[in-house]
């Protein structure tokens, strides 16, 4: 009885997380001048690491970049990188201009610290 | 939401290529694009300022910008390469056909004069002059120097793209701004609100501080053609 009458004092604890996720995930699409060229996942990773090396040197090349998913028909890949290395990776993808003497461009479709956020893309919604 | 603009798309006589660039820019999310005609006056032979091609001739239907319901806006820009102060004539009538005026000085004295005196919208600094990519380190070094000296304010980043594959999305360019030493806010402004400020400056320059502009209206009955002033 005593326990029911007595109001329990609720204690609130507020937790604010800054940079909660140690990784950032990027969905990228490689556009090549010759649209029939295909790359394997290993070639793609090598290409990305070479871009990092060109722009950021050995420190950039040592960055842990993982290709989590790769669709070799559409040349779309899901990359994972540690949050400290996001700016380095993104800038080297932006400045990569040629693959085996043909012009290319990396189109970054989505970037998020949470992998679940990459499942929905509001840019693909049709505007009537 | 902010509008992103790319104020430097190099003009090429190949219509298909230019159309491809404009469509790619719309797909990437740029709301406004400016076609840049580069003009290099030389004292040896008399050169004419290029006449901009009307947009309706370039592309039939302007593509809709991804994420918005409006079509992309295409403007004309003129860049005058200056190696002498007589190269740029402030109120030449040929300049009126262009929406944006830019000046690219090659000497420091001209740069100073351009920033202080000349009535232009953009002062252009070329950090790379079509050198092979080995010289990329100078691009970044020069850009960092520039950002240092101007404290990152009133800077715009643009592509100078000739092909559709040379364009990059607005957030990619924002990220590059971080690489050049801009802060987060300044880097995004370099692609959006500073570009909008350039467009507004151009409008005020063309219309006497944005108050009065003249427009020729069709005269059906009258024989003499006169311009009417309209106050806005």
From TrEMBL, chain A:
GO aspect biological process, one term: tRNA 5'-leader removal
Q: Which Pfam families match?
A: RNase_P_Rpp14
Q: Which domain of life is it from?
A: Eukaryota
Entry GO CC: multimeric ribonuclease P complex; nucleolus
Specify whether DNA repair is a keyword of the entry.
Answer: no
Q: Name one GO molecular function term.
A: ribonuclease P RNA binding
Tell me which UniProt keywords the record has, alphabetically.
Answer: tRNA processing
Q: Does the keyword tRNA processing apply?
A: yes
Identify the SUPFAM superfamilies for this entry.
Rnp2-like (SSF160350)
Name the InterPro entries for this protein: Pop5/Rpp14/Rnp2-like, Rnp2-like_sf
Q: What's the family?
A: Belongs to the eukaryotic/archaeal RNase P protein component 2 family.
Q: What is this protein called?
A: Ribonuclease P/MRP 14 subunit
From TrEMBL, chain B:
Chief site of localization: nucleus
Key words of the record:
tRNA processing
**Localization per record:** Nucleus
Query: Do the record's keywords include tRNA processing?
Result: yes
GO BP: tRNA processing
Which Gene Ontology terms of cellular component type are present? Answer: nucleolar ribonuclease P complex
* Source superkingdom: Eukaryota
Indicate yes or no for the key word tRNA processing.
Answer: yes
Pfam assignment, any one: RNase_P_p30
* Recorded GO MF terms: RNA binding
Which family does the similarity line name? Belongs to the eukaryotic/archaeal RNase P protein component 3 family.
The protein's name is Ribonuclease P/MRP 30 subunit
Source organism of the structure: Acanthochromis polyacanthus
